[in-house]
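In response to the reviewer comment on reproducibility (Comment 2.3), we provide here a single inverse folding case reported in full, input and output, so that an independent group could reproduce the run without further information from us. The structure tokens appear first.
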């Protein structure tokens, strides 16, 4: 069994207006880079940021890293120009902010197609409002073009009026989004950790997200990459266990048995399927 997988352990935001940052991203060990035209760019810098980000993507050199372009919303004055750039610059995905309905996704997909974009260009969506959380299941069910969900936990916490930095306030919303994403087979990325001088807190946040079922973590600084890759990657003991599961299952199959036993515990096909996913994730991350 061969499982295809795209690692999205570390998803790093970079301001589209910062040429030095977009250049540096080509050598960082992040799985994904988001060149941001929205929150990270001041209104008077939107046009220059768009030109710089599009030029950086066209220039290439990002290697295995997925490069997504986060555009401004369709209710802004910058949307049309963002769409024109996103459609033709060669980005691996277009990230939509504050998505609350399937109609918004349809509108962006149509706009990209009309601008000459590849009709298979993946759309990533940000879930960062209460309505976006509640509608996520229906959005994903209707829009197979969506390649990933990115949680915008900072905006969501504000909208929900929960205590900033307190994970319990977002537990229900995050869990709901993981459930919706898993139901449609879509990857989901956890929100950012804003404290840059808090490595222990960041690792704890990664471990919490991994335990909840997220595929990776949104990052705001390169110093966060290594911990995210480690936590959302495959540890040595996890790799060994997955290999042992597959080997035990193959031996049982050769003997005509429908189940296997490993270290006194029953092994069923669902365990083996998960082991194959772990092995595929490990293999896919060996390029960096």
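Designed residues, in position order:
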């Amino acid at each position: 069994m061969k499982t295809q997988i795209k690692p999205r352990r570390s998803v790093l935001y970079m301001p589209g207006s910062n040429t030095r940052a977009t250049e540096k991203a080509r050598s960082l060990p992040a799985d994904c880079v988001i060149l941001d035209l929205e929150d990270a760019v001041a209104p008077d810098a939107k046009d220059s940021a768009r030109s710089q980000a599009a030029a950086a993507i066209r220039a290439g050199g990002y290697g295995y890293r997925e490069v997504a372009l986060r555009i401004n919303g369709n209710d802004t004055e910058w949307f049309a120009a963002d769409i024109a750039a996103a459609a033709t610059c060669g980005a691996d995905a277009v990230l939509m902010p504050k998505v609350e309905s399937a109609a918004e996704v349809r509108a962006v997909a149509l706009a990209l197609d009309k601008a000459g974009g590849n009709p298979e260009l993946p759309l990533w969506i940000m879930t960062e409002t209460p309505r976006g959380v509640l509608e996520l299941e229906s959005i994903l069910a209707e829009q197979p073009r969506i390649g990933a969900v990115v949680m915008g936990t900072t905006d969501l916490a504000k909208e929900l009026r929960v205590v900033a930095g307190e994970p319990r306030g977002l537990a229900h919303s995050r869990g709901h989004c993981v459930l919706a994403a898993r139901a449609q087979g879509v990857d989901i990325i956890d929100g950012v950790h804003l404290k840059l001088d808090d490595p222990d807190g960041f690792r704890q946040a990664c471990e919490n997200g991994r335990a909840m079922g997220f595929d990776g973590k949104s990052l705001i600084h390169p110093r966060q990459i290594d911990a995210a890759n480690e936590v959302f990657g495959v540890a040595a003991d996890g790799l060994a266990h997955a290999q042992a599961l597959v080997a035990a299952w193959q031996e049982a199959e050769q003997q005509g048995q429908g189940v296997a036993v490993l270290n006194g515990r029953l092994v069923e096909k669902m365990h083996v399927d998960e082991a194959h996913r772990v092995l595929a994730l490990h293999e896919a991350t060996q390029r960096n």
